[in-house]
Every structure is written in structure tokens, then in C-alpha cells.
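ok new one. same drill as before - C-alpha cells go in, u give me an amino acid for every spot. 387 of them this time. try not to just spam alanines like last time pls lmao
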């Protein structure tokens, strides 16, 4: 099958096959928040200590992005994706059989090694398989799995954890990992550029400090950081500020996932028409949504609308942020793409950390997203001035 033929026929099947992997990754990244209390009780530890398993995952993504991607960049993309899903599958199985929090943290780090590299390589592969005017849509289709994870995977995993125990949640994701590996094997075409040569890992890593690449990573980290200043504390906001019954919170979070699906589609379409314009529009929208939280959280209906809009704003930013990173370098695109995924996670960690710091100093829950809006605004200004 030629590349042009794959663009006409095979690309949708291949891209959506890749989205199965992103579905599994999105599920395992976020589902642990739903079973954190169960993990703490099972290991007889505090919630704070159990939460280190979440931080460990972000750490694994950041470390794995440059190291794993630079190693795999010299090999066949399809085989690399299969290997990554095997690592992901094994890591989740290890999570399920962990006997203590230390083992769980190590397993989470290993699982996260596959995260950035999979998204990075699959994003580049999808953009290569797509027609030039459909690159952003192809990238957003890969991320579609991660959005669906928040509608189906996370609620299902949480329910299984409550019904059978948190270990079965990770066993569920293990099965998803196996299905993803099979999807890549059977539905992703084996296109590979000719004349592949050994790549110097040091040279691959140097791409990160190139001015345009480094700037694109800063834009992603700052622009996206506002999301988790709100999302990390969304459940306590709904419970303590909105005064919502806890049993209704999972249903409200489904609205967040639905918003993600819609935002992902909108972000892809906007980016196909122009990356810079899409970036300015989507980051501005995210800032506006974050600024609504202090008022929106006071009433049930407006709080539900705010949660939906946050999901929509969150994933509308991903296609333009990812494509602007891909366009920042003509070489080592898998490395750049993977490091941009790491930048997303740095933004997640920064937003959550800033929110926790403000709460420690007495800032009310509903006002924490304003700090996130400020951080996103810095990213928007950098993008507006330099792109």
C-alpha cells in the first residue's frame, strides 16, 4: 500500500486504531483519582501519600518523553508503538498486583514511560498518513481516545474499582492495553522511510533547546497549566462550594468528558484553518472559562455548565498546541511531539501545585482557577507575540 493510498483509504482506520491506545492511556492517567481512597485504605496510608502515585505518573511522563523517544526514533514506528503498548500493559498489570505504595509508585512510573512516547510517535505518524490539510484533524483523532476515556473509561474503571476492588481497575486497563497492541498490529500500516540511519541520542536531545522548539514547549506548559488549577480541585469545589451531593459528582464529571469530545473536534477543525489563530482563540476561551468559576460554582446549574465548558476548553487547546510544536522543527518530530506531551504534564503539575499552594494560604476553592487563568494568559501572550 502506498502512502497516497493510505491517505485516501487507510488513514481513518489507522488513526482510530491509534486512538485505542490513547483511550487506555487516558483511562490509566485519570482513573486512579477515582480509586485513590480505596488504595489508601488498602495500604493503610494517608491520602497524601497515596496521591504520590499520581505525581509519580507525571514524573514518568516527563522523564520518559526524551529518553524513550530518542531511543525509539531510530526504529520502525509501527514496531515502536507495539513495544510501547506492551510496556504500558505490563506496567498496569504490575500496578494491579502491587503489594505496597512503593511498588505501585514504581509501576506507575514505568507505565508512564509509554505515555509521552506513544502520543508523540502516534501524532507524527497520524499527521504523515493524513492529507496536508487534515493533519490537525488526524492529530485530534488520535487524542479522541483520551477524551472518550473520561466519558467511558474512567467512570467504568471507577465503578469496577468500587465493585471488585481497585486492583481490578488496573486489570481492566491491562486488557485495554492488549487490545491497543492488537489494533496497531492489524490496522496501522507499516510505512517506514527508506535509508534509516542510526540516530545519535545526544543530537536528538539537543533539539529540545533549539529556540523555536523550546518556545513551543513553554507555550504548551503555560497555556495548558490553567486547566489543572481547576480540574484537580473540581470535586471538592462541587461538594464544598456548590453544596452538591457527592453521589451526583461522577455524573457531572461525565459532562466534562462530553465537553472534551466537542472541544477536541473544534480544536482540530480550527487548527486545520490556521494554527496561530486557533491557538489564540482556544487559549482565550480557556481563560474566559476559568474566570467564570468564582461565580459559576455558587449554583448547581451554572456549575454544571462551567464543568462542561472546562472540558471543552481543555481539549480545544490540544490540537493547536500539538501542531505548533510539530511545526517548530523540521527534524526529530517524534522527539518534539513527545516532549510537548511532557510539557502538557508539566503544565498539569504546575497548575495543581499552584492551586494547592494558594489553598494552603487561605484562598477559597472557587478562586483558585483565577490563578490558572493568569498562567494561561502568560502562555497566550508568548504565543501572540512570537508566533
Amino acid at each position: 500500500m502506498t502512502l497516497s493510498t493510505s491517505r485516501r483509504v487507510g488513514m481513518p482506520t489507522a488513526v482510530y486504531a491509534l486512538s485505542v491506545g490513547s483511550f487506555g492511556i487516558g483511562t490509566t492517567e485519570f482513573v486512579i483519582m477515582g480509586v485513590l481512597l480505596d488504595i489508601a485504605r488498602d495500604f493503610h496510608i494517608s491520602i497524601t501519600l497515596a496521591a504520590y502515585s499520581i505525581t509519580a505518573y507525571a514524573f514518568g511522563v516527563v522523564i520518559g518523553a526524551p529518553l524513550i523517544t530518542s531511543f525509539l526514533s531510530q526504529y520502525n514506528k509501527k514496531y515502536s508503538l507495539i513495544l510501547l503498548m506492551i510496556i504500558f500493559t505490563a506496567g498496569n498489570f504490575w500496578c494491579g498486583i502491587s503489594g505496597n505504595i512503593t511498588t505501585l509508585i514504581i509501576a506507575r512510573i514505568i507505565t508512564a514511560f509509554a505515555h509521552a512516547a506513544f502520543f508523540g510517535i502516534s501524532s507524527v505518524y497520524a499527521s504523515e498518513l493524513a492529507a496536508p490539510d487534515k493533519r490537525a484533524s488526524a492529530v485530534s483523532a488520535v487524542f479522541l481516545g483520551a477524551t472518550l476515556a473520561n466519558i467511558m473509561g474512567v467512570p467504568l474503571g471507577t465503578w469496577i474499582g468500587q465493585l471488585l476492588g481497585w486492583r481490578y481497575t488496573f486489570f481492566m486497563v491491562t486488557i485495554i492495553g492488549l487490545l491497543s497492541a492488537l489494533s496497531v498490529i492489524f490496522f496501522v500500516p507499516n510505512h517506514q522511510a527508506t535509508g534509516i540511519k542510526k540516530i545519535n541520542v545526544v543530537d536528538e536531545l539537543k533539539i529540545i533547546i533549539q529556540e523555536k522548539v523550546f518556545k513551543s514547549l513553554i507555550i504548551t506548559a503555560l497555556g495548558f497549566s490553567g486547566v489543572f488549577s481547576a480540574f484537580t480541585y473540581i470535586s471538592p469545589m462541587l461538594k464544598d462550594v456548590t453544596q452538591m451531593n457527592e453521589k451526583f459528582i461522577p455524573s457531572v464529571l461525565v459532562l466534562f468528558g462530553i465537553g472534551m469530545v466537542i472541544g477536541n473536534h473544534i480544536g482540530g477543525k480550527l487548527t486545520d484553518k490556521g494554527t496561530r489563530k486557533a491557538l489564540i482563540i482556544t487559549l482565550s476561551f480557556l481563560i474566559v472559562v476559568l474566570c467564570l468559576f468564582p461565580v459559576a460554582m455558587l449554583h448547581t446549574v451554572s456549575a454544571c455548565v462551567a464543568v462542561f465548558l472546562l472540558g471543552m476548553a481543555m481539549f480545544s487547546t490540544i490540537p493547536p498546541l500539538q501542531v505548533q510544536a510539530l511545526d517548530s522543527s523540521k527534524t526529530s518530530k517524534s522527539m518534539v511531539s513527545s516532549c510537548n506531551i511532557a510539557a502538557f504534564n508539566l503544565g498539569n503539575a504546575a497548575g495543581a501545585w499552584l492551586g494547592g499552594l494558594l489553598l494552603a494560604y487561605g484562598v477559597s476553592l472557587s478562586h483558585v482557577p483565577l490563578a490558572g487563568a493568569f498562567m494561561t494568559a502568560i502562555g497566550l501572550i508568548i504565543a501572540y507575540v512570537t508566533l
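Residues 1-11 have pLDDT under 50 and may be disordered. and btw The longest helix spans residues 135-164.
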